[in-house]
Amino acid sequence: MSGEKKQNVYGATYTVLDEHEVAAELAHHAHAHTIGTTDIVSIQPCPTPAERSQDRFVVADWLISDQTWRFQAVLDGHAGHETVDHVVATLPDVVHDALVAGLSGEGPLDVGDLLRKAIACVDEQIGQEMLDLFPGGPDALANMSDEEVATLINDGGVNSAKVLRCMRGCTVLIALIGPHLDIWVASLGDCQCVLGTKTASGEWETRVLSSNHNAAEASEVARIRSEHPGEDECILRDRVLGAIAVTRAAGDFDFKLPAIYTTRVFLNSNPGFRPGYVSKIPEFIPRNLTPPYVSAQSEIQHVHVPSLGTSDDVFLVLASDGLVDLSGYMFGIDHREPAVGGRKWVEVLSREERTGAGNAALYLLREAMGRDADKVSSLLTLELEERWMDDTTILFTKLV
Asked: Residue ranges of the PPM-type phosphatase domain (predicted)?
């Protein structure tokens, strides 16, 4: 019954909404809207201001040399908003300007390499701006007092911002769609990109165009161990240095710089790390022997849609890992199997009942939240001050 108070399996109270209320509240909380041909949702239902979403997205069409290039990105911030806000404000321009320069030059353009370099460049600048505050390097920093360091970095302005961007982090997922339906996807972290294509025979095929960069991924574990031979605890408990799940990200310079920058700079910052994280630092700092451990090198995938021989139905989904979490809960999907989750998303989005049902991203979100009004109510109306579900962002674009 609408308005009834119930408790979930953990004893937390929520309010039951009827079907009309669920549809309205979900669309409201998810900020459901459409830009061009892209349906968008981005949700964090917890009302506490400090728990506001750290997801960001960009949807833009660029007219370059009389041809349209479509740029889409999902960025998932962690530990704070500073890094993800900086990256979302700077990276699109870096990619756009590099694309303009590349298309006006002679010879073939390697779009994948352009994306990889653009992401790495933005990340390198984040670190370098902080390092420039200490021109003498680690040796000079070691000779500064805590008071001197704190005075320098806690100016409440430019210097503070430079330090905080290094202390926070974000994943990056970019899809760049060319004028002839070439798609280049750059992934840095654990967001996911899926291409759904309907074959001439009417069957749907799924292609995962992103990579899964976390310390539970065997290939990432092997890469990091090969880069740090003899360091048995470079991966511990499915985390880098036993402390962070993602293996590739922008920011997170406590895993990219020598330990002295964490102990002397980051721990003297105000504001600092989140309280729950500070307790981990004494444990993982002794493991920081040969940084970097977290990489800003994205992986690139490319597909030329016309060569797939599909019919007249092709769509692209970009999603933050919050959708992976919800899919795991509702569909029983293991997060280490992105292809399985991708197939489920394509199955949901290709249903006949979904056609003409409005915002496709909202449709997928509701399905992942449980579809049933009571289940969705239990995720929308919990009476808690701390977040109970991860930030979740979905971009759905019909390409053909």
From this structure: 37-399
pTM over 0.90: yes
Q: Residue 37 is encoded by which pair of tokens? A: 């041909």
Cβ 56 vs Cβ 62: under 8 Å: no
- Whole-angstrom CA distances from 392 to 60, 68, 75, 366 are 20, 28, 11, 12
- Is residue 244 within 8 A of residue 309, CB to CB? The reply is no
DSSP letter for each residue of 350-382: T-GGGTTSS-HHHHHHHHHHTSSHHHHHHHHS-
Segments making up each domain of the chain, as ranges: 5-131+168-213+248-257+292-398
Q: What are phi and psi of 343, to 5 degrees?
A: -65, -35
Indicate the CATH number of 5-131+168-213+248-257+292-398 among 3.20.20.70, 1.10.760.10, 3.60.40.10, 3.50.30.50: 3.60.40.10
pLDDT in tens, 295-324: 999 999 999 999 998 667 999 999 999 999
State the pLDDT at residue 59.
Answer: 98
* Cα dihedral: 82, 88, 93, 94 (round 10): 70
The per-residue pLDDT for 3 is 86
147-150 contact pairs (CB < 8 A, 24+): 149/264, 149/265, 149/268, 150/268, 150/270
Model pLDDT, residue 294: 98
